[in-house]
Every structure is written in C-alpha cells, then in structure tokens.
Amino acid sequence: MTPLEKRASSGLASIFGLRMLGMFLILPVFALYATHLPGGNDKTMVGLALGAYGLTQALLQLPYGIASDRFGRKPVIYFGLLLFAAGSFVAATATDIQMIILGRIIQGSGAISAAVTALLADSTREEHRTHAMAMIGGTIGLTFAASLVIGPALYQFIGMSGIFALTGVLTLMAMAVVKWYIPDPPASGFHSDAEAKMSRLGDVLRNPQLLRLDFGIFALHAAQMSMFVVIPFALEKAGHLDVDHHWEVYLPVVLVAFIVMVPAIIYGEKKGKLKQVFVGGIALLLIAQLGMAASMQHFWGIVAALTAYFIAFNILEATLPSLISKIAPPDAKGTAMGVYNTSQSLGLFFGGAMGGLLSQHLGYSAVYEFAAGIVVIWLLAAIGMQTPPAVKTKMYHLGKMTVQQAQTLLAGLRKIDGVFEVSVVAEEQIAILKVSQLSWDEAAVNSLLEGKQ
Which residue numbers in the chain have pLDDT < 50? Predict the structure, then answer.
C-alpha cells in the first residue's frame, strides 16, 4: 500500500471503530440501567431500546450507499455521522425509556457503512482492497471485545448518560477524522466488489447458498442482542456481582475466545475445512444457548456458557464474510455484502425485540430457548450447504477496453490453471478472479493481463 492508501484505510477503520464503540459500550450494562428509568421495568421496552437502531440501519444502509454515488462519499458520511451524534445526545438527555428508544432510532439512521466502504474502494487500488477491508473487519471485532470490558467500567464513573454523551463526542471526532485525516480520493466511481448494484440484487436474493449465510448473520446477531437483554441480570443475581465488576467475567472470557478462534480459522482456511469449522461453530453456539438456559442460577455455569458462546461468536463472525466472498459471483460481491449487512441489522432489531418480549412475559430462560431455536434452524441449513471452494479473490486494474476486448480477455483467463471463476468489468476497468488457495498459474495471469495493457 502507498502511504495515502494506508492513511485512508486506517482512518476509515477508525471511523467504523469509533462508531461501533458507541454502539457496543452500552450492551453489557444497559438492561440494568433501564430498570431505573420510567418505563424501564417493562423488558419489552428495554429490548426495543437495545435493538431499535438495527431497524433504521437496515432500512437505510443501501440508500446511503446509492446516495454517496450521487452526492459524494464524504458529504453523505458527514450527514450520517451528524445524525448518529444527534441520536446519541438525545439518548444522553433522556428521562424515560421511550426517549432512549427515539435516540437509538436516530442513531441507526446514520447508517454510513455502505458509504464508508465505497470511499475505501475509491481510496485503494484493487490489489490492496481485500487487505483494507480486513482492517475494518478486525477493528470492529476488537471494538466489540473491548467494549464488553470497558463498558461496565465507564458506567461506574460516568453513568449511562455519560456513555451516550461520550458516543456523541466520539462521533464528532470521527467527522474531524473524515475531514482532516482521510485524504480525498483521486477519483470516485462505482465498485462492484464493494457496493450494491441493484441490477444484481435479484441474482443474489435467488442464490440459496448466499441466503443461508444471510440467515446465519441474522440468527447470530438476533441471539447476541437477545442475550444482552438478560445476561446482565444473570451475572448480578447468580454471581452477586455489581455491574461495575462484570468486566471481570468478560475479560477472561473474551481473551480465551480469541485465543481459540485464531487457530480454528487458520485451520479452516489452510486445510480447506472451512465448512466443518463453520458448522462446528454453529453447533457450539447452540450448546452455549442451551447451557445458558440451564444455568441461569449457577454463576460458573453462566461463565462456561459465555465462554462457549464467545468462542462460537468469534469463529462465526470471522467465517461468514469469508464464505460470502467465496460463494458470491465476483462482480456481485458488493451486492451480496449489502444484503448480508442488512440481514445483520435486522437480526439486531429482531433479537432485541424478541429478547425483551420473551423475558417480560415468559422469563429469562425463554430468551435462550428462543435463541436456541433460531440456531437449530441455522444449523440444519448450514449442514446442507455446499462445501465452499477453497479459493481466494484477486483483483487487477485494467486499462480502457471495449466490450469485445473484455470478452476475449475473459475467455483467456478462464483457461488458466487454478482460476475457478472470473469477471471482467469493462466499465470499471477491472478483472476479478477467484483462484485456488493451493495452486494457480499467477505468471500466466500476469502475462495475459500485461498483454492487454
């Protein structure tokens, strides 16, 4: 990467990190805080407050990406961040649960993920884009883990209003990063590997393998959000832990989960066993949900179940995007990821709403039984999925070419050993290849592409 590419990638990763930190910080403590608010004794309202931002985020992610093509990346990002900050300050000044729900809805309306991804694509060359996207994914993962530990500590010192206000301040800081740190890209255009293309939406929605993965991310985050409606109460009651000490549980659990997750992912990718690791992760997630349902009164049972849960969560959160990349058509990856991200946001909303509703009317164990039911459906769907090809994506920038030249190049690339799938997009001047992770004739690809320059 060039220095400007590194700067853009790190800056945009920090935007995601600052924004997601504000989202995640409240998870381990909000349910307990809400009991002190007017209307907060109704767990249904608590669940809606946790998940409300997911609904507006799901509805607006793709429109934001489309708007960034028309009005520019940075203006759309500024607008979204401003809304997110406004929602944070509304929640910070809330005096009842309904006001917090409103603030969370406004937060979700700042759905800038697609616009940020498009700006990243504008700012990086094709051969470095996968690495840049990985930086964002890693930042989100680390932010989630850190928030579980930092959230209870912050709550002790500045309270929930302070956390919401801090979220607003961090978002304003993110706007400053966009303005003065992230360089303006040399050019802005559509990138099929990073943006949703409406003409390919039907193909993506008709692909049964992709739909299994979309349901998977929906189920994963529905289970996550429903869990945080009740787990703070379980730790407080079974472990006799004040909320400011909950980090003492989350810290070792998250560290163990990370240590186990890394070799599992490496094994799956290097040995071509990604489906087995994936299905195993779903099975472990099911065991964790059932363990939580059975251990609500037993502190160490809760800790064991949480450890299993976070191991499974980390494995699945890392493998799902990889599977999307392997399965989606090369020139529709951005569209596939758009549907995937929308499914994730819907899962956050649905999980929060159902977690609150069930805990209010049927008790805490019902929440985990609900999550286990969703995971069972996911497990059955995943067992029946096709084994994903052991491939990786390579992208190349091309010069201007006619449609006929693109078709000729496409035919030539398809004949090269180790090339599983290829798309040549003349209007974007790119070639996207899925090649074998074990062996492929890179020299032949380079020779053919150089002859077309």
Answer: none
